[in-house]
Amino acid sequence: MNTRTKDDIAAAIARDIAGEHPDGAYVNLGIGQPTLVADHLPDGSGVVLHTENGMLAMGPAAHGDDIDPDLINAGKIPVTELPGAAYFHQADSFAMMRGGHLDVCVLGAFQVSAGGDLANWHTGAPDAIPAVGGAMDLAIGAKRVWVMMTLFDKQGTPKLVPTCTYPLTGVGCIERVYTDLATFAVGPDGVRVLEVHGIDVDGLVERMAPLELHLDRVVGSGTGR
Amino acid sequence: MNTRTKDDIAAAIARDIAGEHPDGAYVNLGIGQPTLVADHLPDGSGVVLHTENGMLAMGPAAHGDDIDPDLINAGKIPVTELPGAAYFHQADSFAMMRGGHLDVCVLGAFQVSAGGDLANWHTGAPDAIPAVGGAMDLAIGAKRVWVMMTLFDKQGTPKLVPTCTYPLTGVGCIERVYTDLATFAVGPDGVRVLEVHGIDVDGLVERMAPLELHLDRVVGSGTGR
Amino acid sequence: MTARICTGYDEAVAGTADGSTVLVGGFGMAGMPVELVDALVRQGAADLTIVSNNAGNGDTGLAALLATGRVRKIVCSFPRQTDSWVFDDLYRSGRIELEVVPQGNLAERLRAAGAGIGAFYSPTAVGTPLAEGKEVREIDGRTYLLEYPIHGDLALVKAHVADRMGNLVYRRTARNFGPVMATAASTVAVQVDRVVDAGALDPEAVITPGVYVDRIVPAAQEAAA
Amino acid sequence: MTARICTGYDEAVAGTADGSTVLVGGFGMAGMPVELVDALVRQGAADLTIVSNNAGNGDTGLAALLATGRVRKIVCSFPRQTDSWVFDDLYRSGRIELEVVPQGNLAERLRAAGAGIGAFYSPTAVGTPLAEGKEVREIDGRTYLLEYPIHGDLALVKAHVADRMGNLVYRRTARNFGPVMATAASTVAVQVDRVVDAGALDPEAVITPGVYVDRIVPAAQEAAA
């Protein structure tokens, strides 16, 4: 089976960001896997990374002597500063996000619904300690919010679902879902399969049931095209 | 008659600011006569002047080569910068004011009511072009808002009145009124005469009628004390 | 999108549609983007709503724009000045609509537009004629008015220096409305004294991060053109 | 009042009353005022409400304060971290109350407190469990929640350099919550790497103007004491 690795998915997102924003995009990459996208941005893409703890033009992770405890990303990982960087406080940083000034935000997810609802902050387990961070602000803030996740959980249950069963992070906020097996557009028109990878469309439809999939625009290895 | 000049009034306000804020006060001086207060602040008072167009530690008016068109006060007069100055934008400047972080604001007035209402932005004349500037924000912003004005208009009518007849700038916002003939405390307890100058108390009571004056704490030349 | 360095002022205001709301920076002449306003006069868009602290000085800049008769409405805090004869005449003859907004509310409404805030409760103007028609609410013992954001289609801003990423710094009190207006408009055009390379501005001292800026005109380049 | 340079951390937190709300800066350890929090542990005030982005790391600083059992409630966006065992234990055993607030709403509610805004409508958290009990309003076709200010009795902030007027600059992403918390508390205590004379900081680059700062502890002075 020829499924995509996290790196493949990150590369696809990076390609789409660069393709849709030829003059450079302002992008926020959520904690965890979405940060991999930064490693795949093409040279000269002009993409500027925002980290919601207060910085634009964030550079790659810092190592060795470059580590400065005052310079971290939203995941509290030491990072670096690129030429043209700017620092700002939390209210200004989230004003920038909430006001819709960032082009793309890429987040991880527990679940995404067909209509674009996002659940990524709480499993709903009664003993879990709730912690939201900036997730709810990011979910509704950027012009376009994309999700990067595996399509199925460890039990084989789809994470793209008719309706989220986990507590929501945001309503109708997700536009696209990048996964190991397929890429989807979600929203008011429902779920449209954009690409498949290492799975054929019939297999995908079967495993995703009862979720209804629009298949009129599928491309990718799974279709043989 | 030994009434106070504008300079005398400004000196009295400066003395009171310094007396009530021995460690230095943050003060906004309104356009026009209140700016005279700056000239009377005692050396070492530590008073820091705010100008609502975006500056703290504003210095005296600029002259000659010191004039910089980018450095003006709220009256659009060229001013100077003192050591320890800070610049900020309009939203931050009015947040500072509205949030109650300034100790004293001194404003001019058309009328002040016994309860502390202020009218200083509009005469109510039907052909007047309304223009409020920062007056309404200043009126309700500082911890203590004081007025500096002549007690009577050119027709001899008192400007400290039972109820303002001019359109209001702010409700119940004024605490003290400094005039050429007397200084008053105003507010929920009504009008209390604090000092008189060049007018005796009986004369003051008569000219201010029907406004009721509390006289239990009067000092000054008019009483002979 | 990353800011574009324009070859002239006309390019920076190109495409402004009839009926646009245009935010114009400046407090008096400090921070007034005169050359951009002149370009808007040449560009010819009509039926404009202008949002600016004042309503023009003398016969140039904003006053010249008003004189074209292409401004339907002006939203400002202080239209009436000694040299605002162009506006005064239009207003008195009923040829321009005026919305007077207290200066702090004007700044905060622009900030709200940029920060994705739907509306906010301000204590400024409570009990005054400018409260007419506004929703009133008591919160924690204090009375507030509900104020809505002011969005612009275009903002014209004057800053001091831009870097090639669009980061801006201002000069002294000329900063005034620039930073908030730059957050509040769909297209932001900025005139600057000069443009420097990315990395030449101190990232700690950037006032307007490049994410807010669309078009930049350096004065030096204009002079050389 | 002008800020006071304190001789030590204990002086900076002296007088903190039982039942106080204390705002604690920092995002993870960046900008965390560890020495001021340690002083608050020694000071002994109980029944505290702490407002901070996280709920303590390891066993020092905020975690040490929680471990004293003198914190009744914590308001934060992201309590759960790999090293938040002190908080986790208190929470699971029902010995601390938790209010989870999305990070952007937390910053904006602090800003509102400092800016004199009575309440504001935020689009963040609409349709999520964190919207429970909040007033909902549709404005211009979008749904918002009504959010109230968060005022502090005391703010503990870490900055980089202060001048003798109390003006502050920060370092990189350690700026985070410091500037908004400094506006939102009745008493603001700041620890800095060093104090310089008035005039030594660039007035264009001051992030927190001195008007917001009450008490300053320079690390160098503490080391020398």
Automatic annotation (TrEMBL), chains A, B:
Q: Which Pfam families match?
A: CoA_trans
InterPro entries associated with the record? 3-oxoacid_CoA-transf_B, CoA_trans_fam_I, NagB/RpiA_transferase-like
Output the Gene3D superfamilies linked to this UniProt entry: Glutaconate Coenzyme A-transferase (3.40.1080.10)
The record's keywords, sorted A to Z, are: Transferase
Q: Does the keyword rRNA-binding apply?
A: no
* Molecular-function GO term, any one: CoA-transferase activity
Q: Does the keyword Calcium apply?
A: no
User: What family does this belong to?
Assistant: Belongs to the 3-oxoacid CoA-transferase subunit B family.
**Protein name as annotated:** 3-oxoadipate CoA-transferase subunit B
Natural source organism: Pseudonocardia sulfidoxydans NBRC 16205
UniProtKB/TrEMBL annotation, chains C, D:
The cross-references to Gene3D superfamilies, in alphabetical order and at most eight, read: Glutaconate Coenzyme A-transferase
Alphabetically sorted, this entry's keywords are: Transferase
Q: Which GO terms describe its molecular function?
A: CoA-transferase activity
Query: Per the record's keyword annotation, is Lipid metabolism included, yes or no?
Result: no
Q: Which SMART domains match?
A: CoA_trans
Q: Which family does it belong to?
A: Belongs to the 3-oxoacid CoA-transferase subunit A family.
This chain's protein is named 3-oxoadipate CoA-transferase subunit A
| Species of provenance | Pseudonocardia sulfidoxydans NBRC 16205
